[in-house]
Amino acid sequence: MRKGEAFFSVAHDTSRPFFVTVGDVQVRVVGTKFDVKRGVDAVHIGVAEGVVEVRRPDGAAKEQEPQRLTAGQEVTLVPSVVA
To answer: What is the CATH number of the domain that holds 53?
Structure first.
């Protein structure tokens, strides 16, 4: 996602996770309703229902542990990749 805002409603299916990538921020879901908004300098993720995992790769090395968000939680991140 390069810019703007999108609301997703994803059916629960653990064998087919759904990914949204915004710069270097990746959101992984297996069944939820959530919002992703890409601003000029930040990415905002809000969860309406279910659980999402938010992660960002730690360079070429191993990835950091994902941050789990549940219904009602939100996070704002500043991506290091602006593409």
So the answer is: 2.60.120.1440
Q: Each residue of 39-62: pLDDT tens digit?
A: 888 889 999 999 899 987 655 445
* 22-40 confidence digits (pLDDT tens): 888 888 887 789 999 988 8
Q: What pTM does this model have? A: 0.73
Tokens standing for residue 73: 């939680």
CA dist 9 to 30, 57, 82, Å? 10, 25, 26
What total of structural domains would you count in the chain?
A: 1
Residues 6+ apart with CB under 8 A from 21: 1, 27
